[in-house]
Amino acid sequence: MAEERMTSEIxxxxxxxxxxxxxxxxxxxxxxxxxPACTLDLAGGKGEAKTALEQGVRMLSELQQKLYAQxxxxxxxxxxxxxxxxxxxxxxxxxxxxxxxxxxxxxxKAPSTQELAHDYLWRAxxxxxxxxxxGIFNRSYYEETLVVRVHPExxxxxxxxxxxxxxxxxxxxxxxxxxxxxxLSRNGFLVRKFFLHLSKKEQKRRFLERLNNxxxxxxxxxxxxxxxxxxxxxxQAYEEMIRATASDQAPWYVVPADHxxxxxxxxxAAVIDSLQGLDLxxxxxxxxxxxxxxxxxxxxQAE
Length: 303
Ligand code: ATP
Ligand code: MG
Prior knowledge:
Helices cover 50% and strands 11% of the residues. The protein has helices at residues 2-11, 14-18, 45-70, 87-94, 113-116, 122-126, 147-150, 153-156, 169-186, 200-212, 222-228, 231-245, 260-276, 287-302; strands spanning 22-23, 74-81, 103-107, 134-138, 189-197, 252-256.
């Protein structure tokens, strides 16, 4: 009982748990201001957070049913992170109660030849959620300002006309993405972006754990070590990206990722808080529809 009470108290504070990590105006944002090991000193710690997450999953399931029934809004949740930050586990846990029919996860890996033959937002556009649905992007078009920036040779493969190569390319991409997200928002699609902020030290620990445990070998790839070597460059690219693309309608959440239980709680709280802001409700039926239902009921009973 006492535990139940404490738990619901955490979830009554979805706004308080997620707001410290929400960036809507990036001008003064610095990555060093968010500690990857932060847990907000939550009373009850990991144990209570896990129970709260279970309750959060149930709340999300209910909100999603209303989203689906109302069929007005769509939701795009986008995840970015360095390897081993826990994107997959967070998506799996936070969305575990959601009806698979109302939710779709898209993973963005290195683009195919067909994808490279188009503009860089093309493949993301194919995967946008419908109204009433939640779309999850596991990585996203933001890779175009991250991995492509850290490895400029990837840009060569995009076959842009030479006259369009400009020193301002990254700023232009930021602007295009801001406009794209504003466009989605104005069309009734809620955009929420999560950067799972892992420390370099914790990434090393997780890689070693994967290497030392045969059941986790499959999760390890030599490419992960290669990307780790570019850590500082990635952090710089992430910081600039967040500064340039955080907005009121499409905020970034920079979520501490050294403690998985805390990451999951913050993400769940942020999604609940955002969906609650939509004032979702089951559609009301008209007087005429109510009469039709009553007629149907009488017909069935008369059989
Ligand atoms: P996991 O390792 O948990 O399976 P992941 O998201 O890291 O998940 P990988 O297959 O390891 O999946 O990596 C996908 C790779 O694709 C990443 O290194 C990412 O940077 C790269 N990628 C994604 N989008 C692009 C892009 N537009 N251009 C080039 N590379 C990209
Ligand atoms: Mg990977």
